[in-house]
From TrEMBL:
It comes from Streptomyces lasiicapitis. It comes from the Bacteria. Pfam families: STAS_2. CDD domains: STAS_anti-anti-sigma_factors. This is STAS domain-containing protein. InterPro entries: MlaB-like_STAS, STAS_dom, STAS_dom_sf. Residues 63-153 form the STAS domain.
Length: 153
């Protein structure tokens, strides 16, 4: 859809007479193209990350490496990822937070959901490599009482 919008903006730019109108059409086309490429990039990246065998392997510890910001915007995608791994019933779920730069209160909902599911199925959750900010957020909300931390943090 965004590629179609970029093409339409470029086509319209050919018929607009004032130079500032052409410039606006080029800006609109560039913006639409950027959004289209970003959408494709995120879709491809999510599919690649969700298909990692280490996260879905049966019979051994599953490791989910999270990265970036875990906020209300990203909580659904992160939740789907953790749910998919928990559905495989690993003996232990390790959540690596080494590359998490921000964990908001809204983002912690994914941890509450994961703990609830894991507790019901008897799967322990281990948090590894938690930076100070995500760890402080987990502590503030009391999640560190039900989550275990590995010693490599």
């Amino acid at each position: 859809m965004w590629l179609l919008a970029a093409g339409a903006a470029l086509g319209a730019g050919a018929y607009v007479e004032p130079s500032w109108g052409r410039l606006l059409c080029l800006i609109a086309a560039a913006t639409a193209l950027r959004i289209a490429l970003r959408t494709v990039w995120h879709s491809a990246r999510s599919a690649r990350l969700e298909g990692r065998p280490a996260e879905h392997s049966q019979g051994r510890q599953a490791v989910v490496r999270l990265r970036g910001e875990i906020t209300a915007v990203t909580v659904d995608r992160t939740g789907r990822r953790l749910s998919a791994v928990l559905a495989a019933h690993p003996p232990v779920l390790e959540i690596d937070l080494a590359r998490v730069t921000l964990l908001t209160r809204d983002g912690t909902q994914v941890f509450f959901d994961a703990v609830r599911t894991a507790h019901a199925t008897g799967i322990p959750i281990v948090i590894s490599n938690a930076r100070p900010q995500p760890r402080a957020t987990l502590h503030t909300l009391g999640l560190d009482r039900v989550l275990h931390y590995s010693h490599d943090t």
